[in-house]
């Protein structure tokens, strides 16, 4: 079973920041937080991952709380093409991804 | 950059037939994962391979088998197909666990299997 809890849906206006929360209160010390997204039946796309520290790449930022029990994915300037299902996944490096229900993000103009 | 290649992209089979799906990982990636996504469902892990050996097993039916070859490509063989096998089948690849700083998986575009 998935070890994460995410809101089923969120809305965001184009150009605004999208902040997607994820709870993972049972995360173990050697488990990473990964974020993937799936756009309309395409293959899931890797976004970002982290262990303890906050991370940023060209797509997004990942903020992990100090106790590691929750995290937030930030898309700084959402566009219509960011409309997708976003999955927060907790797992050990090199193991299978266990997908939960994810958050459907709808970006509108 | 090269991505994961899956073939065929679409496949239509009848009940009780067999099907073979192929996956070509990103160059230098030697770990392959297979996932199944039924209609309206989230992706579900089936099986994975590392260096041609099965490394992990999920909810893969006994009617399905898979293998990884010396060039690291992988094939998923499905026999006695049932209507419920209709789904998207994704392959993902990653670098060898333990040798890379990160282990993110990169997914292919999927094979859409329809069983009639």
Q: Ranges of chain B with pLDDT <50 over ≥5 residues?
A: none
Number of strands of chain B: 11
Query: Biggest interface, which chains?
Result: A-B, 21 and 28 residues
Q: Provide the succession of SSEs of chain B.
A: EEEEEEEEEEE
Name the shape of chain A in a single word: globular
Q: What do you see in this structure?
A:
The complex is a heterodimer of chains A (109) and B (116). With 109 residues, chain A is mainly beta. Chain A is built from no helices and nine strands. The mean pLDDT of chain A is 95. By secondary structure, chain B is mainly β. In chain B, 0% of the residues lie in helices and 49% in strands. In chain B, the strands form two sheets. In chain B, strands 2, 4, 5, 6, 9, 10 and 11 form a seven-stranded mixed beta sheet that branches. Chain B has a four-stranded antiparallel beta sheet with strand order 1-3-8-7, with no helix packed on it. The model of chain B has no long low-confidence stretch (mean pLDDT 93). The interface between A and B is medium-sized, with 21 and 28 residues.
